[in-house]
From TrEMBL:
Keywords, alphabetical: Membrane, Transmembrane, Transmembrane helix
Region: Disordered, residue numbers: 1-33, 111-130
Transmembrane residue ranges: 48-74
Positions with biased composition (Basic and acidic residues): 115-130
Protein name: Uncharacterized protein
Length: 316
């Protein structure tokens, strides 16, 4: 039986001449050539994205280092400023603030009837002030000050001392009768040396009437031992008024250079200072002309007086 299967030569020839195979082979090469550029472009895009991400990470790291260094530098500057600020505060104030967290100054005051009565509470939160004569005493700024002077806050209002009605109690609360300021004021707002100098001044001459028929010793005036009480009208030459202005201005100059001392209403009030300048520079002022003085109108803690007893402390 003769087989119809082609010989090997014929089979190979058919394969070699098969157009379908040739067509498939040609299409595969074309597709390979078109795929290669696309793959190359994708690789480049991925490489660019990786480079951008790397640059962003480096930038973030550099920014973090700069921010960290800036914070260290600012902390250093703040430390230097804090050291400078501490150097301005007396050592006693620092040690007292560390030893005492909160201390409220309280005092038994007689109830004044004046319509402008202000609170005597020292519980208001604010800056703490240390009394240089009593290291254990802290006072706080309180509301109600009548002088909005920059750099100063009210520490004791005019009712705190209450010296005209309660002299012993006023002394126990740290108040002083300062004749150069016309009344009672907290010791932080007076100067012992100026007060001692004032008490050595010659007698100006004091009378209970404008006709000079009822004299009264100056020592009694300084002690507020006046017939009829501290609201009695007294008469003295204008020389007293001039000396009062001199001492008040000296007190202002002296205490404005000290951080642990304050100023009363009279030396701190700009209006009163202008008034004193006018008194001292007025060529027509006659030192012998009588001037009226009412001690109770200056300050000290009884109804019907002015604001001379207020004590203001510098804000540190």
């Amino acid at each position: 039986m003769i087989s119809s299967r082609p010989s090997n030569d014929k089979y190979e020839k058919v394969l070699a001449n098969d157009p379908e195979l040739e067509s498939n082979s040609q299409r595969t090469e074309d597709e390979d050539e078109s795929i290669l550029p696309k793959w190359d472009q994708g690789y480049r895009k991925r490489s660019l994205a990786a480079m951008v991400w790397l640059c962003m990470r480096v930038a973030l790291i550099v920014a973090s280092i700069i921010a960290w260094g800036s914070s260290l530098w600012l902390t250093h500057l703040a430390t230097l400023e804090l050291q400078k600020a501490r150097a301005l505060i007396p050592h006693s104030a620092i040690t007292t603030a560390q030893a005492t967290k909160t201390l409220t100054v309280t005092a038994k005051l007689s109830a004044p009837t004046h319509t402008d009565q202000k609170t005597d509470s020292h519980e208001s939160t604010g800056h703490r002030i240390t009394n240089p004569h009593h290291d254990s005493l802290n006072t706080m700024f309180i509301p109600g000050g009548q002088l909005p002077v920059a750099g100063y806050g009210l520490a004791y209002n005019t009712y705190y001392c209450n010296g005209w009605s309660d002299p012993e109690g006023a002394r126990a609360r740290g108040c002083v009768l300062d004749p150069s300021q016309g009344g009672w004021v907290h010791e932080l707002c007076h100067d012992p040396e100026l007060r001692a100098e004032w008490l050595r001044l010659p007698d100006f001459g004091w009378w209970l009437d404008a006709h000079r028929t009822q004299p009264i010793a100056q020592e009694r005036v300084w002690a507020a031992d006046v017939p009829g009480g501290v609201h009695t009208e007294l008469f003295t030459p204008q020389a007293f008024h001039i000396e009062h202005c001199k001492f008040v201005m000296r007190l202002r100059v002296k205490h404005t250079t000290r951080r642990n001392r304050g100023l009363g209403y009279l030396p701190l009030d700009p209006g009163h200072m202008y008034h004193c300048l006018h008194i001292m520079t007025d060529d027509g002022s006659d030192p012998t002309t009588l001037t009226k003085v009412v001690l109770g109108e200056f300050g000290g803690g009884t109804s019907g007086f002015g604001l001379g007893g207020e004590c203001y402390m510098p804000i540190l």
